[in-house]
Amino acid sequence: MNQTLEGHNGGVMCVTWNANYRKLTTSDENGLIIVWMLHKGMWSEEMINNRNKSVVRDMKWTADGQKICIIYEDGAVIVGSVEGTRLWGKDLDAHLRFVEWSPDSRNIIFVTKSNEIHMYDYHGNKIKPLPLYALANKKQEKKMGGDDDWSDEDEQEEDNTIIGIHWYDGTEGHIDVDAPTLAVAFRNGKCQIGRGEEDPKATLIDTRMTLTQCKWNAKGNVLALAGSVKSKSREGEERQVSQVQFYTPMGEHIKALKVPGANGISAMSWEGSGLRIALAVDAYIYFANIRPDYVWGAFGNTLVYAHNKPDRTDVCVTFWNMKSNERYTKYLKGVKFIRGAGENCLLVVKNSAPAGPPPSGGENDENNNGEDSGPKPNQHTLLLCNSIGSPVDTKYIDIVPKFVEMTPFHVIVSDFRSVYIWQYRTNVSKLTSNDAGNSATAMLRRNTGRERMLDIEEVAANPAQTIENFKPKAGRIKDGICAITASKKNLIVARESGTIHRYSLPHIGLENKYAIRQRPAHIRLNCDSTKLSIIDNASILSVLDLDSNNDSSDGKEGTYGQLLQFERKDAWDLQWADDNPDLFAVMEKTRMYVFRNFQPEEPCQSSGYLSNFSDLQIQAIMLDDVMANPDTPDRDMVLDFETKSLKDARELITNVGLAEATAYIEQHAHPRLWRLLAEAALEALELQVAEKAFVNVGDYPGIQYVKRLSGLGERMKQRAEVAAYFQRFDEAEAILREIDRKDLANELRIRLGDWFRVVALVQTGGGDDKMLMKAWNKIGEYYADRFKWQKAATYFSQAKNLMKMIECYYRLDDFDGMEKGVELMSEGNPDLMEAGRMFESVGLHKQAVRCFQKAGDVKAAIDTCVLLNYWEEAVKLAEAHGFSQIEGLLAKYAGHLLSKGDKLQAVELYRKADKATEAARLLAGIAEDVGKRQVDPLRAKKLHVLAALEVERYRKKALDLTTMGTTKGKSVAATTAATLDTLMTADAESRAGGGASDAGRKVMDNAWRGAEAYHYFLLSHRQLYSGDVDAAMKTAIRCAEFEDILEPKDIYSLIALTAYHSSHLNICSRAFIKLETLPGLDESTSDAIQSLALDIFKDQAPRNPSHLPTCYITCLETGQPYNACTITGRAVLDARTVGCKTCGHLMLEHELSVSNRKNCALCHCPIPGINFSIMEEEEERGD
């Protein structure tokens, strides 16, 4: 738009833009300030301010657009907000020229007319002056030079004037963590770039110009310095030439841009994207397109590019598959270059600090030779990556990379003098890797040929050296390297003087030197390494013929290399064709030209970066658009352009005819054109033309296809076959169905693997049931490959593929479906074994046994039961089918468990195997061990009860088996006799446990004896602690029977204690007598017992307060047992009792009703005839 700012009466002197709030602020020579905003397509005044005292020299918004700082020439400073509120004002004692905010908006920098820079905080408080390192040398020279006249001094002061200051705010991220951001430019052409307000290592630049403007671009990676430079014409006249110099933050020169006009550049501004720059010269505004040197590379279908993110200090590297649109990202610090070629890309990374071990180097690890290959702080890392960003190999170099090139076999990195060549791949890499282990000489040859270093000052025929032998020279040479390129067989190194070195690859021998007048900036080799394109610093393109024999006029013959009569201006990118040495594409400004034999074709409008040129098609990538949205690149950002010959050939084929197209293609022969003709001839069924085209392409399968097509005879069949060739399968099927050849349509779909369509064709009469079954089976496999098991099972069921169906149900954990499938299988089917193993893997032993039995493999069924710990079923199967090995296996496994000390697991094993006697003996032994430890008598009782229950189970089973086997057809007397005989035999077998312990034999003789002992012992303690000392004494007397189970000292100590507290001193005296006569007592214990007895009975006679039944006295004296109530421990004399059906012990009926007990107090089994629930009284009371 073009609009007059009507609010100003004087010339506008200062303009600033608020990007966040989209506001324009202007000031004129009268000091009037106006803030403009866009409203309905017109700029309207939002705020106006006029101090009426001085001229506004500069205005700057903060990075977030919240505040503005306005400075006046007389030293007045005003800081306001975006809403128009004045925050603060201050008068400085200086004449101000420029103002700049720090990136965090916390500090303000003021530049005075006396070339001083002062820093203030955002409240207006002075902090410190900033040093100017660019003027340090000048001031030193002035001090040493003595007094000069005033005019010279004024001129010197004018040269040192600060003409601009710009502090990059970092909103678009930083290219490096340590990248300088504060630029201060002087009229004398000097510029200092610092990392913040005070940087003693600031970068100093001498542009050798008279500067007028200084501006960073929006990303802070390019600094533009504008001004003028003196130049002499051919007539010797001096004149001023306007020019813009572009630099990196590190001070490296990028480009020089000449601008028309002799009065210099008065204003300069970057576009927000950094792709254009506006320059004000006299009454004109010039716009220049900027082609940024992005960090990127392309290979295959993958584009790799690096970009910065404001919230991260490292660099984001994206690997984008332009075909599948898949993206992979990785974050690295200090990414300097990216190149791509062949199947890999190269990332050059600067090491800022020592790192950990490098990524795995794959087959190239042998090149390390056992040395420490980790990176050092001053080194650079070369990362060789694949298409998804995974490192394939890693190298570390000591030179500082300035130029990087990559081919499908070599990586070349150079500084201004040294060149590093890494052969990361060879044509016979697989062969050499196989031979490496067999030949030490071959290994040495490979290692010495992998990495080489080259000094361009070396004049030997073979200048390359190994890394170990190379000694780099310090310092930069005058005629340094300015560009490199390489092909599969040549390396080209260009020097600043125009000298070009040509080396052979992979042997790196100097082949030739060439001399040109230009200073190359961008060079490229064509596909056969015969021509070299050169773009110099002035963007002029020329081509050097490397192999031409130039017979010069001075008599020197055989001088190779000739600069062809070809020149193009404003070139910034070039790409040679991969398959034609005379074909290349050039980018000039915003146009792309294609040259064939140096004759241009019609240009195309494009700003893309050239990435590939093959098959008469150029691939250009719109990197400007990619970098604008680096996280979501779009396929539309990749453009494909066709050459004129390809477009013309297609036009002739479409609109004229095959004969004319053939004549044209013969004149412009190219494989792509012949393929295009072959396809068109096939479409028209011109088989002779198609065969000729395939012959010219060298496509043998195509020739065979044409011959097969000719043999079909019928034209409709040929049409269908051609449609299938071009992957128009529906059309091919429609043609075949039209001529009523469903069988051929079916064959077509089978060849394609389109089994869904095969089913549809068969069901409409295009095949038999066998084909339908095969199709269903293939569809099932299709779904199974995609893990859609339910659908796959459905189709396998239709195809009667029971094993595959069972496998799908197995994946779905549908075991009922698996069982149904097994039932459908016939006896002896070998697939039953696999199904059984599936059931076995999930622990379903019944189903697994069923499968193995149905398959006829009983041993596998037994093994499954053993593996899943179902020993009872294993034993039953073994007995039923005569496998005697199961007993040995059971015993062996039990012995293994016992050797490890896992007795309870052995008990569980015997119980599962229905070996009750063995389980009982083990339980009794464990109970005996627990009792000896005298720590947990309740646990000992439980174990004895379990042992007794196992014995009872064994006896009941023996009785049941005997009854079942003897009652048929016999009298009652005979049955009874047989039962008694069997019981006596079983009892004798149970007693004959040769390896059983004493406890094991005891439990078989009297199963409940151990449980009784601990039951009464625990009951007596419980009664004693509850205060029922009389009952406790009587219960304790019952324990006198169990001296072989309980410790006698514990028994009689308990009797003496309870008798003493119940005043039955006679019983107490008898207990003390038992204690004193115990064998094995030590003298101290015996003396203590006697002393205690003396203290008790010296004043009291040993009498009982009441009469005790004789059974108590007899049990205490002789150990003779009596029937005792398991609830109270009292003797059962004449009261009504209830007997337990499991253990056979008695309980007083009265006590049973009073306690409301429903279970036996000893074995805890339910009492018949009572609505019971199992209660664990022992545990409750024992706690």
TrEMBL record:
WD repeats lie at residues 5-36. Residues 1124-1167 form the IFT121-like zinc finger domain. Residues 673-762 form the IFT80/172/WDR35 TPR domain. Residues 352-380 are annotated as: Disordered. It is found in: Cytoplasm, Cytoskeleton, Cilium basal body. InterPro entries: Beta-prop_IFT121_2nd, Beta-prop_IFT121_TULP_N, Ift122/121, TPR-like_helical_dom_sf, TPR_IFT121, TPR_IFT80_172_dom, TPR_WDR35, WD40/YVTN_repeat-like_dom_sf. Residues 1005-1103 form the IFT121-like TPR repeats domain. Its main location: cytoplasm. Residues 1-291 form the IFT121/TULP4 N-terminal domain. GO terms for cellular component: intraciliary transport particle A; non-motile cilium. Residues 296-642 form the IFT121 second beta-propeller domain. This is Anaphase-promoting complex subunit 4 WD40 domain-containing protein. It comes from Triparma laevis f. inornata. The lineage of its organism: Eukaryota, Sar, Stramenopiles, Ochrophyta, Bolidophyceae.
